[in-house]
Amino acid sequence: MDLQILLNNCKKKDPLAWEELVRQFQCRVSRLAFHYLKDPEDARDLTQEVFVRLYSNLESCENEQMLLPWLVRITRNAAIDQLRRRKARPPARDIPAEEVRTLAHRARTPAELWEVASRKKLVRHCLSRMTFLNRQVIEMKEFQDLSMEEIAARLKVPVGTIKSRSHRARSEFERLLHSLLGSSPQRLCDLEDGS
């Protein structure tokens, strides 16, 4: 059946047309979802979600040329959203009983606390010595977990500029870090004391 006719019939809520439309595009959507998520179960769930969105917004799909790019965009965006949620809130998993004993929280020793605080001070010190734009790129990428595209949008510069700036920022940070770590032990102690 012609795709435009199929789309028109779907808009008229024809269940057979909808079933045929899903059958035609299900594999493409599922493969794209799997490409992003790397998990077959998550890809299946996302595929269902994409078709639910498509069904809810069929009226805005004017012709058959729009359908596939629209499905690709919906799938990509939904997958990226799911990856962000997964990163922010890792999925819960059952813990075997034999592992429960190893989960007891162990308080850090004073030496470990000092080491963590020292690393934080060292990072803050390096960042404070960086150029303003390089520091912004590092903070947005590493601390705010923004993508290159999001950073480019916030700074109102092309993505390519942000990619090269990110490389330069990392190089500058690494150079500063090496110069501090290569300093005498006394210099690092001074840094720890806040000088």
Structure description:
It is a single chain. α3 crosses α4 (64-88) and α8 (148-155) packs across α9. The protein has helices at 3-11, 15-37, 40-56, 64-88, 97-100, 110-128, 132-143, 148-155, 159-181, 185-192. With 195 residues, the protein is an all-alpha fold. It has two domains: 3-88, Rna Polymerase Sigma Factor, Chain: A (Orthogonal Bundle); 108-192, Winged helix-like DNA-binding domain superfamily/Winged helix DNA-binding domain (Arc Repressor Mutant, subunit A, Orthogonal Bundle), CATH 1.10.10. The chain has ten helices and no strands.
Order of helices and strands: HHHHHHHHHH
CATH architecture of the largest domain: Orthogonal Bundle
Q: Just give the CATH class of the largest domain.
A: Mainly Alpha
Instruction: Report the oligomer.
Output: single chain
**Shape, per Cα inertia axes:** elongated
* Rg value: 25 Å
The fraction of residues assigned to DSSP E strands is: under 5%
Number of domains: 2
User: Class by helix and strand content?
Assistant: mainly alpha
Largest sheet, strands/sense/barrel: none
Which fold does the CATH topology of the largest domain refer to?
Rna Polymerase Sigma Factor, Chain: A
**Whole-number average pLDDT?**
82
How much helicity do the residues have?
over 70%
What is the terminal separation in angstroms?
76 Å
Low-confidence stretches: 184-195
The CATH superfamily of the largest domain is identified as: RNA polymerase sigma factor, region 2, helix turn helix motif
How many beta-strand elements?
0
Number of helices: 10
